[in-house]
Amino acid sequence: MCPTLLVLLCLAFFGILSPVAHSTTVATDVSALNVMYNSMNSPSQLTDWKSSGGDPCGESWKGIKCSGSSVTEML
User: Fold this and answer.
1) I need a labelling partner for 49 at 20 to 30 A (CA). Which of 3, 12, 20, 70 fits?
2) Quick one: how many helices (H) and strands (E) in the chain?
3) Cα separation, 66 vs 75, whole angstroms
4) DSSP state, 71?
């Protein structure tokens, strides 16, 4: 296979997957979860949660379900 074609195929492949694989959670959702986590004194059961910042949808925080970049459920 031509090296140029291979490079183009790789770029196209990763360009298609990158929006799916990387999610940036809506800032207001992140802020609300940070406040809630801090108000509960940062319980260790909430794995992957952060006291400031973070990406609940992209990092799969425990108990959080997302649709795209929005938090839709808390379990």
Assistant:
1) 20
2) 3, 2
3) 11
4) E
22-25-54 Cα angle (round to 5): 90
Looking at residue 23, what is its pLDDT?
Answer: 67
Q: What six digits make up the tokens of 25?
A: 């959670």
59/4 Cα distance (integer angstroms): 34
Residue type, 53: G
List the one residue out of 59, 22, 56 whose CA is nearest residue 36: 56
Per-residue tens of pLDDT for the chain, all 75 residues: 566 656 555 555 555 444 444 569 999 999 999 999 999 999 999 989 999 999 999 998 999 999 999 999 999
